[in-house]
Amino acid sequence: MEAKNFIEDIINEELSSGVVSEVHTRFPPEPNGYLHIGHAKSLCLNFGTAKKYNGKCNLFFDDTNPSKEKTEFVEAIKADIEWLGFKWHEIHYASDFFDDIFALAVKLIKEGKAYVCDLSAEQIRETRGTLTEPGKESPYRNRSVEENLALFEDMKNGKFADGEKVLRAKIDMASPNINMRDPVIYRVLHATHHRTGDKWCIYPMYDYAHPICDSMQGVTHSLCTLEFEDHRPLYNWVVENTGVSHKPRQIEFARLNITNTVMSKRYLKKLVDENIVSGWDDPRMPTLTGLRARGIPAQALKNFCEAVGVAKANSEIESGYLEHFVREHLNTHAERAMAVVNPIKVVIENYEGEENLEFDMKPQDENGPKRSITFSKEIYISAEDFSDNPPPKYFRLKPDGMVRLKNAYIIKCERVEYADNGAIDKLICSYIPESKSGSDTSGIKVKGTIQWVNANDSIDVSIKKYDYLLNDAEYAGQDFNERFNYDSVKEFSGKAEKYLGEVSDGESFQLLRIGYYKKGSADGKTVLHEITSLKDTYKPAK
Ligand code: ATP
Ligand code: MG
Question: How many CA within 13 A on the CB side of residue 369?
Answer without folding.
Answer: 8
